[in-house]
Design brief:
6-stranded mixed beta sheet; about 10% helix; about 35% strand; binds zinc ion
Amino acid sequence: MQALFYFSNTRIICWVIIFFFSSTWATLAQQPAAFRCGTANFTPNRLAVLGRLSRTPQARSQAGTVSYVPLRLHIVRRADGSGGANEAVLYQSIAETNRLFGPGDLQLFVCGSPDYINSDALYNATGTSWSALDNLPGYSNAQLNVYYVNSLTINNYSYGGAAYINSTGTQRSALIVDNLARVLAHEVGHLFGLPHTFNNNDSANPTERELVARTNCTTAGDGFCDTAADPFGLPGATTSNCTYTGSIVDAQGARYAPDMHNNMSYWGCGTQYTPEQYARMQAVSQTSYSNLNCSQASPAAPTALTVIGGGCLGQPQLTWRNNATTPVALGYFIERAAGSGSFTAVAAVGAGVNSFQDYSAPGNVTVEYRVKPINAANAYSNAISITTARTYCPATYSAATTCASPTGAAGLGTITVRQGTSTVFAWNTPGCGPPYSAFPGQAVRLLPGTTYSLEVRLFTFGQGVVYLQHVSAWLDYNQNGSFTDAGELLLQSTPATQQQAVFTSTFTVPAGVSSGCGVLRVRTQSAGSGIITDPCAQLSWGETQDRPVLFGTVTATTTLTAGPTFALLPNPAAGRVIVKLGNALLAPNSLVLLDATGREARQLSLPSGATEATLTLTGLQPGLYLVRVGATTARLLVE
Ligand SMILES: [Zn+2]
């Protein structure tokens, strides 16, 4: 704890002026001279102490060993209980901050539940609000206290956030106005020993100003040698669209070239940290903050994490079992790792939610997921990996379909694939859909060298009214992520056929098609806008659907030989069903849902050790289905 002495100089207050974190930054960026920073500068003496700490090997944790930092969240509302920050937004900003802090092996979590403070005086905070807030019973020395207030005004200036450490270092808290992750990450950065990159650039003592050549980088400026000298706030330090345009020079006549993307500056152009900044945070975490802890009970870890949607089409869809009852989970952090890389937070979901679709997942790569409660240090679920879907061009429209009007409801109804007269698969999307939809869970299996027919029925409005539309369809036979290879156009309406409500064509799957998954894309647009020749171009208004198509015959895999026992709860089921396994799986397995004709309607990957899984049933026609895990099957009635 000897490291605490570096706080003994004075109390450190750092103001973050609000407009640097507001959406109006773009216009205010032209006026950095308007910036005011109160008493933010770290003194050279303090920089020296922090610098020594950073360079002390014992102060560093083993790389890859994560320090979990407990936050005590305080949400300040008006006296009548109105107003106050939205918890879901806060959790999202903590997830984003964890992503930024990942390379520094630092992860924030919420200790206990948020503390609500109802006070008109503190709702709009001032420079004296700290002592009032820290004296309330909700304050805890064992965590970092973060107060979310409506506004912070000091000497008639508005600020977006501020960090505070008292003279003995025992009190450390942050005030946040903007619920943005970069504000939280900036203020917590201060609490972990990071000065502004422009620290002391206007100091009366020239030796405290960092030179562009960085020859004095350990004692001047922010004390880091891998952050450029930053002229932010100096007269003439101008910027345009996140490019530094100033021509002012340092004491040696060298022109400044600041890093516009560092989160400890105010340029508002990025949220990056440097290796020395990460090392500093880690060192402070290991020393000054090693006594932080959360004595609140930790919610139980979620289990049975499963993921679908990889390999062929659609963004990964995660589901897990929420086991936290006492205490409940405030929500969950979703973490993703690429290949053998380390996990990074990608999102947060709220209390009671047990699913997440990862729209930010990169295409056609293997990623791994895990989830944990927002209010737990490291109560992680099982990890599960998936190869994400290949990426197809977006299908967009310049105008939204007007679902409420028969003259604007240009949409798709049922898409049917037949072999001869027998239906192989029918995708039915009743109602008026969004401009683009993908349905990764509903695949049709087609055989090489076999001829099929495709039928596209338009969306019917009210009493069978159909808007006049053109329709085109493509199938990515060679599974290369493009629809434009020879023979991949299956259907294209012409001016002569545009009066129809049903469009059909026949197609033969090439005999040499590779086993795997292609995508069928069906597009429509209002007939007045012409025939559809491009699978990717923006159309006027209408609808596009992507459907997965499996080529080749069903091949038994080794995972189908085991025969675990399981129960379906409830049965009959609507919406979803829990598949409870008799024993934990000894090896990864798969769960398949087959419809009454034996076609696969859903599939789930079950990780080794799984004891149950949640199968989503939304979008399925009511009826009798078979659930198969390994060689064991059971009947499921979907309502
Ligand atoms: Zn600051």
